[in-house]
């Protein structure tokens, strides 16, 4: 079997990967050259500074500074520029006609790149005694107390534009329902590749993945990939994994159209967004996809109580009740010789004018109806005495009417 071909592209390797040998060769550019290139370029640190993607203020400062470590300063500033890479530095060396430096550093650059790729291929996670990754601040706290790492109720994914809405979701589920919700902001500092960490956490220690769907979310390929990854886990384990939420109307990707989406803008009397979200995320006894022997599931502090609203009575029922109350009030005022105008008062008002013992208080429509039925049943029982009995009692009494 032949050797694997060595990767020569350096566009993915940042300047921070440069090691001592490479830097020592680059620092020779601090020596100013009298002869310019064919294009009139400086062939030393001044040429590098001209083409480096650093701020003009820094360039002006360095040109006027009495300094001998020019290249060290340029590289240090360049490292702060997003997307910096070694390949861009190589192009500048060619542009200023310093092929000697280009050739002298090429092998060193490849060695630096190989060391860098090897380093990042091994996530810099601390681990528990059982080998589980310590990813969040809460993980660190549990380990320090000798406890198991917890199983999160959900991982919350969102774009930067939807951060306020995501914060509201996290706060409501944690403070009102006692859930444990994790976001990328909970990761410990210094952990590389946050998307790789999120995939590890979602696959091993998060029961659900809450996604705030929006146009900005769909513009991030990495977030979309993770959501599809979580959906695949759910299908593979026959387990509900992804809970899509929409803050406002937007185009829903085809892979999420088969799932019921929770729409925040529909929240109202017939659709309680927070109730639906809690029920979608809440732990189910059939959720056995995560290893509870290794991790700890913290029960919710309180469970959501479904409140059934009291419906207002229909107009017919309200009118019937009003008539019944009026009859009660009229009979009550006649008995206690109250002014005739008191017949227009409510039951409560009349009771204040002439209070009665509870047994004599006016009855509601329901109570009157129940009493009438009781009377009818009593009479039916008494009417059975119409049947004449042949046998007499022990005292010689008739046992019928």
Automatic annotation (TrEMBL):
Protein name as catalogued: CSON001312 protein
Cellular component, GO, one term: plasma membrane
Residues in TIR domain copies: 150-281
Annotated organism of origin: Culicoides sonorensis (Biting midge)
PANTHER family, alphabetized: MYD88, MYELOID DIFFERENTIATION PRIMARY RESPONSE PROTEIN MYD88
Organism domain of life: Eukaryota
Molecular function per GO: TIR domain binding; Toll-like receptor binding
GO biological process: defense response to Gram-positive bacterium; innate immune response; MyD88-dependent toll-like receptor signaling pathway; positive regulation of canonical NF-kappaB signal transduction; Toll signaling pathway; toll-like receptor 4 signaling pathway
């Amino acid at each position: 079997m032949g050797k694997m071909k060595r990767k020569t592209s350096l566009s993915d390797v940042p300047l921070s990967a440069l090691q001592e040998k490479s830097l020592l060769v680059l620092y020779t550019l601090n020596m100013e050259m009298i002869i310019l290139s064919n294009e009139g370029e400086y062939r030393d640190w001044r040429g590098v500074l001209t083409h480096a993607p650093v701020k003009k203020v820094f360039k002006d400062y360095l040109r006027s500074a009495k300094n001998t470590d020019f290249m060290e300063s340029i590289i240090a500033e360049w490292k702060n520029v997003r997307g910096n890479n070694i390949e861009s530095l190589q192009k500048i060396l060619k542009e200023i006609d310093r092929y000697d430096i280009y050739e002298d550093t090429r092998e060193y650059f490849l060695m630096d790149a190989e060391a860098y790729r090897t380093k990042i291929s091994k996530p810099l996670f601390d681990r528990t005694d059982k080998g589980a990754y310590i990813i969040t601040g809460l993980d660190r706290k549990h380990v320090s107390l000798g406890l198991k790492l917890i199983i999160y109720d959900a991982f919350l994914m969102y774009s930067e534009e939807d951060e306020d809405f995501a914060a509201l979701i996290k706060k409501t589920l944690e403070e009102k329902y006692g859930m444990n919700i994790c976001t990328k902001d909970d990761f410990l500092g210094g952990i590389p590749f946050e998307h790789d960490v999120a995939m590890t956490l979602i696959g091993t220690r998060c029961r659900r993945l809450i996604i705030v769907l929006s146009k900005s979310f769909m513009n991030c390929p990495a977030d979309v990939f993770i959501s599809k990854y979580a959906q695949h886990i759910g299908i593979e384990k026959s387990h509900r994994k992804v809970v899509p939420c929409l803050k406002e109307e937007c185009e829903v990707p085809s892979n999420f159209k088969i799932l019921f989406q929770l729409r925040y803008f529909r929240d109202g009397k017939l659709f309680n967004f927070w109730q639906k979200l809690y029920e979608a995320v809440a732990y189910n006894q059939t959720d056995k996809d995560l290893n509870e022997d290794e991790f700890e599931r913290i029960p919710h502090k309180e469970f959501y109580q479904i409140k059934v609203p009291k419906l207002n009575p229909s107009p017919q029922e309200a009118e019937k009740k009003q008539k019944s109350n009026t009859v009660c009030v009229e009979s009550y005022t006649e008995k206690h010789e109250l002014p005739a105008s008191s017949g227009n008062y409510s039951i409560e008002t009349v009771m204040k004018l002439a209070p009665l013992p509870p047994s004599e208080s006016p009855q509601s429509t329901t109570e009157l109806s129940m009493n009438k039925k009781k009377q009818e049943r009593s009479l039916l029982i008494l009417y059975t005495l119409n049947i004449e009995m042949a046998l007499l009692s022990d005292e010689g009494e008739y046992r019928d009417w």
